[in-house]
């Protein structure tokens, strides 16, 4: 298994951040390392397999009151759906992966080795490939770094188990906060990861650092030959603490990230793009950086998990304690061109992740334990979807 450390990026990305963006625009034939998967298309699979096949038309909105699927989870961080109808959930501080069935049954699948929780670090994002669920990938904090590991996922619904972990990608900066932590497979078959600035804002504009970036790699951690910066896993830079990534039906990547004191962001991600942190927070109207399509005050959002389904984005908000529905304009990526609608404000506390549930539903993960838990926290909630205007 090939392991890629931060030194890999350092050896190949020595230009300034501004020069890197120019390089990404101009580079047509980067040095080959690994052959890329086919380009994204509208027919490409979504990042996680669905338990059922719901209607694909949209846009949609939530309707009715959520029902509680499962309770008493300990600081859950990430949900991932399996084709069997089961879901896997990570617990940040226990380092446990648990299986949740549609009927609410919860059981332990296994504990991820070498996780050292602290502050916002621990066992964070989970991911499986939509066409190969034999491996479970996890974003973890260890004693020395943040890293991505994968473990054989064996068994079937009601009996899943984990094999020994092997490192896919290591050397990501860690800290008590701003660890990023989301991982997902894109429609191109590549593995994407969000890496925070780990409390040092200058990392975000430093091409020699993997902090404050969105990363792209093959399933085994190698560098795709068509990445914007040859030999580097860096896909975009200038991020503070991105935790939400999702692709629309056209294969376009979008991301949500925490601001500092003023603005949280929803960004349309382009290869090699620079999103401004720490020079710019929110919409800055500076030609050197890419402005967000939408922004919220930090009290309204603190965005975490992001989902796209039926022409609609759903965003789980922590401090904002609400679920945001986001409707983008396919003809525009200008600031303010997306419409945002809040649901369940304050009803369930902090929301950490959102994924597609069985049929026409969403599963929403709360994240209150360790702060201000409510009765039964933490929970998984299920809410129905309906065509927009009918909910």
Structure description:
- The chain has one domain: TolB, C-terminal domain (Neuraminidase, 6 Propeller), CATH 2.120.10.
- The chain contains two helices and 25 strands.
- It is mainly beta.
Write the layout of secondary structure elements.
Elements (H helix, E strand, L loop, with lengths): L5 H7 L4 H10 L33 E11 L5 E6 L5 E5 L4 E5 L5 E6 L11 E7 L2 E10 L4 E9 L6 E2 L3 E7 L10 E3 L5 E5 L17 E5 L16 E4 L3 E7 L5 E6 L4 E6 L25 E4 L5 E7 L2 E6 L4 E6 L11 E5 L7 E6 L4 E6 L13 E8 L4
Antiparallel strand pairs: 1-25, 2-3, 3-4, 4-5, 6-7, 7-8, 8-9, 8-10, 11-12, 12-13, 13-14, 15-16, 16-17, 17-18, 19-20, 20-21, 21-22, 23-24, 24-25
Question: Can you tag this structure with a few keywords?
Answer:
mainly beta; 25 strands; 2 helices; four-stranded antiparallel β-sheet; five-stranded antiparallel β-sheet; globular; 391 residues; Neuraminidase
Q: Averaged pLDDT, please?
A: 88
Number of strands: 25
CATH topology, which one? Neuraminidase
Number of domains: 1
SSE ordering: HHEEEEEEEEEEEEEEEEEEEEEEEEE
Short description:
With 391 residues, this protein is mainly beta.
